[in-house]
Amino acid sequence: MKVHWQLEQTRTLLDAGIRRTLSLAAEDSNYEGESWVVDDALESFSEARVEIKLLPTDSPDETDLTQFEVIATIRNRDLQPVQTKRSQIVVTQRTSSPAPSRPSDDNSSPNEPSDNS
User: Fold this and answer.
1) Rounded distance, CA 50 to CA 14, Å?
2) Contact in structure between 3 and 9 (CB atoms under 8 Å)
3) Three-state DSSP class for 73?
4) What DSSP character marks residue 115?
5) 30, β-bridge pairs
6) Is the pTM of this model over 0.85?
7) How many CB atoms lie within 10 A of CB 89?
8) How far is Cα 64 from Cα 116, in angstroms, rounded to an integer?
9) Among 10-19, 33-42, 77-86, 91-100, which range has the highest average pLDDT?
10) Most-buried pick from 12, 18, 87, 99 (CB within 10 A)?
């Protein structure tokens, strides 16, 4: 029963990593992954971590797609520790940064009529 609960916790940690990957990759096209440890938050485990790794692109045709490997690992504190690990490949579409807006050449506001009529 303890191992089943630990597997569920590992899956929950993996889901959090997947959500974070999707969110950060959508916000930042230069996002390359990260690693975080949550041992303190999960006191019954000696190790609890998420690793998010950017995977190399195999094909030049897929330059707008980015692949990440998300890995969640938990190890319990038993005398004979059990480690559970779950992973998933996450594919995101690389978003280009919006072009910076350029100031207009005239000083008129877009909502005000111009004197050029």
Assistant:
1) 7
2) no
3) strand
4) T
5) none
6) no
7) 9
8) 43
9) 10-19
10) 18
